[in-house]
C-alpha cells in the first residue's frame, strides 16, 4: 500500500497534469518540447489540446502527447479561483462536473468548500461545463440588472 501512495505522489510532482493524471512538465519554447527536435526541416507547431491555438510555451504530457498553452494550464472554479492539483488515494471527494465519487486525484479549489474536479473533466468537454455554469450565472445577473434598471 505504501508503494502505491508513493508512486501516485511521485507521478504528480508538478502543478499541472494531463486529463489522464500524468505530470505535464513545462516547456519554454518549441525546441524544448519533447517532440520539438524531431522535425528539423519542417517547422514544428505545438497545438493546445484545449483551445487548439499554436503555443510557443506551455505544458506537455509525453505519455499522452497532450499539450497545454500557458493560459489553458490554469483551471478555474465557477467562482474564478485557480484550482490546485492534488492526489490522495484515500480521499472521498466527488467531482462537481461529472459527479463521479469518490475521486482520489484531480484539481481542488482552496477557497471554495469541497470544490473538486477529477482529472478527466479537465479536458475540453469538462471545461465547457464549467464555462456554461459561469455564463448561466452571468445571464441571471444581467437579466436582474436589466429588469431593475429603472429603480
From TrEMBL:
Keyword Zinc: yes
Entry-linked InterPro entries: Znf_ZZ
The keyword Cell inner membrane is annotated on this UniProt entry: no
Chain ranges of the ZZ-type domain: 95-121
Keywords for the protein's UniProt record, in alphabetical order: Metal-binding, Zinc, Zinc-finger
SUPFAM superfamilies: RING/U-box (SSF57850)
A Pfam family it matches: ZZ
Full protein name: ZZ-type domain-containing protein
UniProt source species: Spumella elongata
